[in-house]
Amino acid sequence: MKQLQDLKETGRFGPNEKEYIRKDGTRYPLSISGALFVDQTGKQIVWGIIEDITERKQAEEQLRYQGTHDALTGIYNRTFFEVELARLEHSRDFPISIVVADVDRLKFVNDTR
Question: Residues 10, 37: contact at Cβ < 8 Å?
Fold first, then answer.
């Protein structure tokens, strides 16, 4: 096997994240990165890393969920509302109307704290 220092690097790629499908239909994310080398004879050699990033993607999704949902009720929180409102401001559906109703007097309880 050739030594890395004997090769001339001609380019790098990645990291690229792609979702692949197994034969059984399940999906899994991979991160692919590497470099292209040329030896003294002109032969091209690809040196790369392929990494299964399923756990990282699951952690990212969990953090995304926690950032946009109330921990107690599981419904969308104010952060989600503000981001969604900003998105709607720039859509063709603007202006919009928002109806806020206090059906269980929870607002009154919150305001007394």
Answer: yes
DSSP 5: G
| Buried-exposed string 2-40: b where 16+ CB fall within 10 A, e elsewhere | eeeeebeeeeeeeeeeeeeeeeeeeeebebeebbbbeee
Give residue-wise pLDDT tens across range 91-105.
Answer: 887 677 778 777 777
Cα 103 to Cα 93, 98, 100: the distances in Å are: 27, 16, 10
Residue ranges of E strands in 39-71: 44-52
The rounded distance, in Å, linking the Cα atoms of 80 and 68 is 5
pTM, two decimals, is 0.62
How many H helices and E strands in the chain? Answer: 3, 3
